[in-house]
Fold each of these.
Amino acid sequence: MNNNRKIYIYTDGSSRGNPGPGGYGVFIEEMIIGLSYAKKVISEGYRYTTNNRMELLAIIVGLENIKKKKQNIIVFTDSKYIVNTIQNKWIDDWKKNNFYKKKNADLWKRFLPLFYKHYVIFQWIKGHSNHYINDYCDRLSTAAAKKNKNLKIDYVYEKNNNIII
């Protein structure tokens, strides 16, 4: 673990209607001793999904973009759903029961190996509270959801809910 290096991952997810077209936005900033040296922005839109799925997918995509193992990461999110699941250790019980009857099990299963790969702390940020990076991620996720072309398909969500578009 390198105490001089930290990675900040800011995320947001949205859907227009819940469910409906959705998107996520991610801003990754790597710091060494307080100096920013790398930034990355990622966003994608989906044709039919939920807000919680996009919130979780944003975090997954952010963590997937960190290639080196055992990094110090702080994830900033306005999703109480995710923060509470991790900080209250509900995820541990869900995992023991193989996510039986839990929503978004496919994404939680994808999240866990990434979470265990690093030293991750979650920091809740109140949404729409003038935090400039969180607001930026909100704009990214909303714009991605509003795209009319090239929206990805959330196959698991659509299949589990018998969606035909």
Amino acid sequence: MKASLKNHSHVVFYLKCLLFSYILTVGLLLFLALFLYRFGLSEKIVSLAITLIYIAASFCAGFIAGRRMGVRKFMWGMLAGVLYFTILLCVSLVIDHGAAGISGNLVTIFLICAGSGTLGGMLG
């Protein structure tokens, strides 16, 4: 019974981490949209900014997860980054009916999310 409650609390905690990272993503994307509207940024700069937003959100989720779990921080941070990417991919597939919505290269974005989540977990 106690193990079941502990696992349930881990799931709820990860959902909170992912919710925080997606709120951060939405806020940063709105900020980017304001800059795009105000300054007419090029496509290259917007693409770079979106990648940096992925890095920041995955890092924050990994940082929070690593700090909470305490042991094997890198693993928990990597899990947070992978879950962030998985939800990003699922939303992209539902909205765009294809994976082209998140980027041209899925493997690169996956590695970026997993790596920044791992780094956040190690520093957490």
Amino acid sequence: MDKARAINTFLERVDRFSQIALITDKEMENIFGEEVTMVLTQMEHFMTENRTCSDCGGVCCRDIGCELYAAQFGRCPIYEYRPIACRMHFCHRLDDPYRPLIIELRDVFVGCHSAMDFSDNSNLRSLDSPPLGEVCPEFVAAVRSYTDLVRNGKLRPDHAAQTVCGEAERYRGHCTAKRPPFETSQ
């Protein structure tokens, strides 16, 4: 993987996005380039096939303090819009045969993350999420009660996940209304 190109692509494009806290697969490709997207797709396929995340019990999600984590969901309720940090983090259980790719993705993430020290772009703060409360507090406030109800067994996870995902879409739409999202023809 050409890490320098991926970092440069990110730095060239990040300020063109209305927000990067909740991001789609296509936006990941638009912001990092096709090579990173192919690696992420390959690793995600391997993780799904081997049930790496589904069998872990939410260790990573709890460790980073994700406000949306509830074991009852079975998977991230905003999976389609999960943050960059979540997309580029891989469990130590993926060590072989993907260790070199994990290290390369980590290097790309760290390279992009270090740009926060040299830029006033507010989007870069989103690389530190989750937790999401600092970068999109309105979204977290809108969904907190749903995730709490799921954790307490008072709301069906499928219903809550649908509502939380809808709130993610609404949040993204609100951000886009302020500033249209970047679309690339590449």
